[in-house]
């Protein structure tokens, strides 16, 4: 159980760092994207938080599912099969 929390903590930390850099890139790059977007503002107040929440949620769930699968393995059998 302790390993699961460690893996989740690291995954959330990396996801948060990536999302912070991504949102900063959106704000700084919005002037360049303004010409490419059709009927959408570059800094849409609904789209950015929804996409951040979806990405954070999917990253957390995927790391939790992967860790849960790995934690169920017996270490001796895993080493023996390698």
Give the arrangement of secondary structure elements.
Elements: H1 2-33, H2 47-71, H3 75-81
Helix pairs in contact: 1-2
**Average pLDDT level:** 86
Order of helices and strands: HHH
In total, the number of strands is 0
Number of helices in the DSSP assignment: 3
Task: Please summarize the sheet with the most strands.
Answer: none
Shape type: elongated
- Ranges where pLDDT stays below 50 over 5 or more residues in a row are none
Rg result:
19 Å
Class derived from helix and strand content: mainly alpha
In terms of DSSP E residues, the strand content is under 5%
Q: Span between N and C termini?
A: 24 Å
Helix content: over 70%
Number of domains: 1
